Amino acid sequence: MTIATSAKYPLNWVNITYFGLIHVGALFALLPGNFRWDGVALLLILHWITGGLGITLGWHRLISHRSFQTPKWLEYFLVFCGALTCQGGVITWVGLHRQHHAHSDQSLDPHDSNQGFWWSHMGWMLHEIPAEEQLPRFTKDISDDKFYQFCQNYFVPIQIAFGLVLFAIGGWSYVVWGIFVRLVVVFHCTWFVNSATHRFGYRTHESNDKSRNCWWVALLTYGEGWHNNHHAFQYSARHGLAWWEIDLTWMTIQLLQTLGLAQKVKLPNLPE
């Protein structure tokens, strides 16, 4: 089996409709009366909670790579924060990410950057690619967990319930900024790690793929942009390895470690 170009696979109209509606919803922020500074503040706070704590810290460094351990209640909290990004089910997300690392920039990589920027950014999700056939062998450690299954199957109803809470607190503008705009921003920040960091930036380590360290993606994603470092040492909890490579997620892990909430933190063996 190979995952090649978009021409080989039919369009995935479910995903096209799903992402299309969310992007259209974000455009309501441009309408008169929907702009509010507290809405922008809500966007930024939720970007950190869902994109930073949920995707970067939780789904990626904790779950996908097991680069550190936390108490189960904290693990579940981070998994739930990630579910609020609506980037699909957590089991699918983790499985696809592990498959990406197993075959980075090769034919079995779901978002192989050799197929172009658009494909690796989001085009791969808009087609019926066979990547999910490989998921069971990449997700054996989480697929039977009932909480993971809940977040896998009900991330859309969870988002709807969250939207109702925001509507009750701040009306329609809170839904626009806290749901639609926030989802679009977190979507593309996450997707830049698949696309931009395999095209722009510098390489410090040999990783047998096209991964690069890209400073502006690191700023948008709380340290995920130091992608060449990550591909060279994928189980490391720290991605920014040089002193100037700011990694806010690593700082968060250090804080958790100080509080006794992060154990068995993995780091690369680098020369002094």
Walk me through what this model shows:
- With 272 residues, the chain is mainly alpha-helical.
- It has a domain at 9-195.
- The protein is 54% helix and 0% strand.
- The chain is built from 12 helices and no strands.
- It has helices at residues 13-27, 37-64, 72-83, 90-102, 117-121, 135-138, 146-153, 155-170, 172-195, 215-220, 227-232, 248-258.
- Helix 1 packs across helix 9 (172-195), helix 2 (37-64) crosses helix 4 and helix 3 packs parallel to helix 7.
- The radius of gyration is 18 Å and the shape is globular.
Features of this protein?
272 residues, mainly alpha, globular
Global outline: globular
Helicity, in percent? Answer: 40-55%
Rg measurement, Å? 18 Å
Oligomer: single chain
Terminal Cα separation, in Å? Answer: 43 Å
| Separate helix tally | 12
Order of helices and strands: HHHHHHHHHHHH
State the low-pLDDT regions, or none.
none
Strand pairing plus helix content: what structural class?
mainly alpha
What is the tally of beta strands?
Answer: 0
What composes the largest sheet?
none
How much beta, percentage-wise?
under 5%
Report the average pLDDT across residues.
94
